[in-house]
Amino acid sequence: MSNPVLKLKDVSIYQGNSLVLSNVNVEINKGDFVYLIGRTGSGKSSFMKTLYGDLHLTEGEGHIVDYNLRTLKESEIPFLRRKLGVVFQDFKLLTDRTVNDNFLFVLQATGWKDKQAMNTRIEEVLTKVGMKTKGFKFPHELSGGEQQRVAIARALLNNPELILADEPTGNLDPQTSVEVMEVLQEINKNGNTILMATHDYALLLKYPSKTLKCDENQVYEVVQRKS
After folding, report:
1. pTM score above 0.70
2. Domains of the chain, with CATH numbers?
3. InterPro entries, per this entry (predicted)?
4. HEC secondary structure over the chain
5. Of 159, 161, 139, 140, nearest to 150 (Cα)?
């Protein structure tokens, strides 16, 4: 029985007045790990931005974690994002505070009140990404790979139904990319659904999974050949 956390039907995505992607039909089910690939400028970022409410959906039907993207109100976007974990290429950590304080900021902003519960949750997510002892450090004291692990941990804070990872290894060297990918694979094994935009084809070969490609205003599934 399929259990879609994302369903797009006959969707067109615009950036301003220009059509970026048309006739998009995509379904991602709970527990899936899905890649989104395509050249720079092929629409990957616009696709992601539509999913977390940065670009408004004006054509077609779109449902993501119980929200209707067509009727999504500005006031609902923060609630949608609580159900999504978003990981960016450039980490987006607040540089003026420690890792723990970065996480407290997110939890307080999303309605957590109990200090003990917040501290427990922070320890849980840092442990998941192998960063349990790094909570007192500032972002600049961490390597790029460590910062990305922290960014993944932050995305997990509110037990998201879907993690959107937008080029999470884009700024990392190949070895560190593999380490970050191992973290994402582990999280996926634990039941988290992940959609990952990437241009790192080496990762697709090493960790094959369902793959969507943006090309010539279309999104289609790539059938991977078995080696």
Report:
1. yes
2. 4-96+154-222 (3.40.50.300)
3. AAA+_ATPase, ABC_transporter-like_ATP-bd, ABC_transporter-like_CS, ABC_transpr_LolD-like, P-loop_NTPase
4. CCCEEEEEEEEEEEECCEEEEEEEEEEEECCCEEEEECCCCCCHHHHHHHHCCCCCCCEEEEEECCEECCCCCHHHHHHHHHCEEEECCCCCCCCCCCHHHHHHHHHHHCCCCCHHHHHHHHHHHHHHCCCHHHCCCCHHHCCHHHHHHHHHHHHHCCCCCEEEEECCCCCCCHHHHHHHHHHHHHHHHCCCCEEEECCCHHHHHHCCCEEEEEECCEEEEECCCCC
5. 139
